[in-house]
Amino acid sequence: MASESVRETTAEVEREILGYLSLRPGAQDTQLGITEWWLLEQMIEHSMTEVEEAISHLVASGFVVRFQTEGTDVRYGINRERLVEIRDLLAGNRELP
What we know:
By secondary structure, this protein is mainly alpha-helical. It has helices at 2-23, 31-61, 83-90, and strands spanning 64-67, 75-78.
């Protein structure tokens, strides 16, 4: 079982490396460079997508609100009107909608 999990993880890393190289065919690096830069960059890209989806869901659920003033980037913060509900959710007393 453990070797199957290692194979799956290795296959995921292989796909990440190939994905990086397919977008940058001229790229070359050491094993350390691949680990520190290529895979980290891929993780950040995935994380950005996941964060975007999570924020969208939280805004749609009303737990988070958007703030924007002219000439600034959109910022997000807690919806204070739902703070008690949010604390219940974090305490495990309820689930995200």
